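Q: Convert this sequence to structure tokens.
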Amino acid sequence: ITGIYDEVCRLIKTKIATGVYEPSNSSYRSRWFMVIKKTNSTTTGTKLRIVHSLEPLNAVTIQHSGVPPYTDQIAEQFAARACGGILDLYVGYDERGLSESSRDFTTFQTPFGAHRLVTLPMGWTNSVPIFHDDVTHIL
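A:
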């Protein structure tokens, strides 16, 4: 990550400042890496995303059933009504808190010491169904 080191450090500092990461004393360490984020034609420069490699955690996690909702019930609630809303799905996982007892399992090493996730980890086996449940509840 030599060529992007400054950008990676800036991204980590931003996540620390916004409360997505917090310091950790856990002996557990997960791996992480960077990927180039898709950008639209109006965006300039390279956008990076941190990806936490949580395969060891996924291997021992009891999977959420992830049963999708019965969409007819949701649609019926909005019949003949005007409905509007705004959801920020770009950082949606960062809005969902992670249980205090689970945070140590997400600990990873940064240039600023060991940190752990405070919010729902992207790449964790249960993140998608949990986030889906949250959005469905809102709707």
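The helical segments are 5-17, 55-60, 71-77, 127-138.
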